[in-house]
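Running log. JK asked me to keep both predictions on one page so they can be read side by side. First protein, sequence followed by its tokens:
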Amino acid sequence: MTDLNQKNILITGAHGFLGQFIHKQVLQHNPKHVSTPSYQEIDLLKKEDCEKAVQDIDIIIHAAAKVGGIEANRNKPGEFFYENALMSIQLLEAARLANIEKFVQIGSVCEYPKTVANMPFSEEDLWMGFPEETNGPYGLAKKTALVHGLAYRTQYDMNIIHLLLVNMYGPGDHFASEESHVLAALVHRFWEAKQNDLPQVVCWGTGSPTREFLYVEDAAHGIVEATRLYDEANPINLGSGQEISIKDLATTIAKTMNYQGEIKWDTTKPDGQPRRLFDVSKAEKEFGFKSKTSFADGLEKTIAWYAEHIAKHAPEKIAV
């Protein structure tokens, strides 16, 4: 067990979508100081900045990452591998030299093989094949961090844990940029269509793949609980344990937003991984984590936040 009380904690990516919620959760445990440097203050691609960031730090939660949807991953696979791998490698080495007490790596469902013999994904399936091609470089960068952590545990006896997260969603997500993932992108697309009275919305692929979604506040809670209570070498899944097809997701978002038009599917675009669903039993067994937010409630909160913070500040009619 790692007591966060009166500890100096570094959260990388603390100003990002997930990082903001991790910060809020960490503050509930009475730390001595929480360091939340911005990209402008600390560039993790620079070795000297990594060394600066870890000074006088007890615990690191490494949530910074270069992320994006299918199109961004297809367009910039080199950047996604290089930047994610380099940030993790340099920060962990700096942590080793500074004798950090605990290092928490935030991994991804993208580390898993494209397909496995049985679903849902269990942690033992991680090495059964190559990740889905469209986000393979990103997934392998994250898996490189896992191997690096395991190597440093073995040679230097460091306390390093690796958490595998499914697709997240919630308030503060990236809705209209290359960083946006499927749920946020669909919310934005249906809102655009409704605002412009468009008769249809075109979605990528066939709609048949499934995804598992974890509300961002639940994800942050799981990360902080693992930071406190999990010290094992084996990577561990954090998810909701529920899946939904992309077609049903689009229909649900359209209904929730009261969009009355037609949904069409552009099958020339890639589907991505066929299925994504985690076996989440180990997280519950090891540190009592279970997602609390139902998908219906989480989606309503996400759309309400989007309407309040994004849609309300956009033009009444927008060009598409």
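And the second, directly underneath as requested:
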Amino acid sequence: MVARRSALQRLLRLGEITKQSQTVLLEGLRSSAWTLEELRDAALDEVKSAAGEGTELAPAQTELAVKAAYYMIIADTMALRREGYASTTAEDGDDVETDDRSVAAVIGAMLSNTRGVHQAYSIVRAGRSGDPLLEVDDDGYLVEGSDEPRVLTNEIVRNTYNNEPMTHATHGAAGARRRWDELVTDIAQTEKATKTMAAVKVTAGSAQTWLEANGWPLTDVRNARERLDWVSRQLASWGDAHQAGEEDVD
């Protein structure tokens, strides 16, 4: 409770809050005609018109930012109340890039782009319904994980909204996220290719597939499985490392 209250207090560092007029927007009040969808659309318009360009968010962006931040802070899975860690030094002496931005800085970066507005809208909707906070894409649709929608975490939010274009990032958290997304895409392509190969028929119109009738050379199969096993072990080691880090933080 103390950590959450502290995070909410740090959210007040978002300078735009003090400039927000009490008569502007304020969706959710009985005396206001604004709906959450209209607030989202207004924030999207502000992004497109560059009304909130730079460090300044416009009124709709600011209101949506504050409401989303509240649900992000109180959600255990989100844990935005935890700020990043100070920079450290790797064994080779190089600086390790970390994210030590405040809650206000992260939420400000989020609401400065279209995807972030969609994400904030999704967060508020889910928070009010008591549902899990899930990641959305540039168009506001859920981002699918391996089998189900991906639950938002502190790392996902900080990596996605870090003021560096993901398509250009080559190092640090943003670079790792970019490469992870490429890896997941390649895995999906491998799955698709496997299903396509499995569907090859013995002859046109045949009910039997080629692999059912003939299989595939064992040498090729072993080589492919060894490569996939290596990938699987790599993924497992990354998951173990992340879990160990989470336990250290706890």
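Observation for JK regarding the second prediction: The first helix runs from residue 2 to 11.
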